[in-house]
Amino acid sequence: MWDKYLNANFFTAYYVERSSNNKNFTRLNELPVTPRCLRR
């Protein structure tokens, strides 16, 4: 699981990917996901 709060200072957008074999990943979204709020 990705900790977006821990990485908020390094990354501003994310691509979501999925793999059925943990080797080959496929991007699930065309545009990067940008969190609305990074506060806890």
How would you describe this structure to a colleague?
The structure is a single chain. With 40 residues, the chain is low in regular secondary structure. It has one domain (1-40). It contains no helices and two strands. The protein has strands at residues 17-18, 26-27. A two-stranded antiparallel sheet has the order 1-2.
List keywords for this structure.
10% strand; single chain; little secondary structure; 40 residues; flat
Please sum up the structure shown.
With 40 residues, the chain is low in regular secondary structure.
Radius of gyration from CA coordinates = 12 Å
Q: Helix share of residues?
A: under 10%
Shape: flat
Unreliable spans are none
Mean pLDDT: 81
Order of helices and strands: EE
Discrete helix count? 0
Instruction: For the largest sheet, list the strands in their spatial order.
Output: 1-2
Compute the separation of the termini in Å: 16 Å
Work out the number of β strands: 2
- Give the helix/strand class: little secondary structure
Percent strand equals: 5-15%
Tally of individual domains: 1
Give the biggest beta sheet. Answer: 2 strands, antiparallel
